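Exercise: predict the fold of this chain.
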Amino acid sequence: MNKIVSGHQPNYLPYLGFFDKIKKSDVFFILDEAQFSNGDFHNRNKIKASTPLGYTWLTIPVEKKKIPINKIKIKNEIKRSDKSWYEDHLIKIEDAYYKAPFFNDYFPELRKFYETKRETLFDFNMPIINFLLGAFNIKKEIVIASELGIKTLSTQRLVDICKVLGADTYLSGDGGRNYIDGELFKKNNTHLIYQNYHHPKYPQQGDKFLSCMSAIDYLFNCGGSL
């Protein structure tokens, strides 16, 4: 039987495709040593909202440095309309979803993570990711890449992670087709497969369905069964 490994950066409030990849894997690694990318989803994501675009961004204020994600610090002193950034996020989430069928089932627990002050982006994002894994009843082995002691880069790093974790198959997101060296996987007798993710359409607040919102959009509207 194949042992499938996949991984991703520890994004903020990830979208459903993030959790689909975990479900399709035996082991999932959190790529916490990846370089922080301003404008990516490391510190921001979208939720459905009553705006002209139909959604709004939730962005955690962080230092903008070209360093690993696990070293990025949150700027907790930043205010938004005289509120802390986390109070602002909580208000926007509640305003967007308080009428959703499963809001009261999950929001009180989610609120606790915002009310616990964290110094780094990684230490804030990971508890929320674990909360969502539990809410979606996804029980897979999760490892932190920086704890594996692997120093190689790019595709070789992915191959070496598979070796350390005893996997014969690596599951990449669809975007990996643009940068992964498939020949290197072949040389190391490791299968390379792609997620080929198709975002589901589900009951959602508002008239027009918007895909690729944060997974909390699905959670509040549909509950924990993926």
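Check your answer against the key: DSSP finds seven helices and nine strands in the chain.
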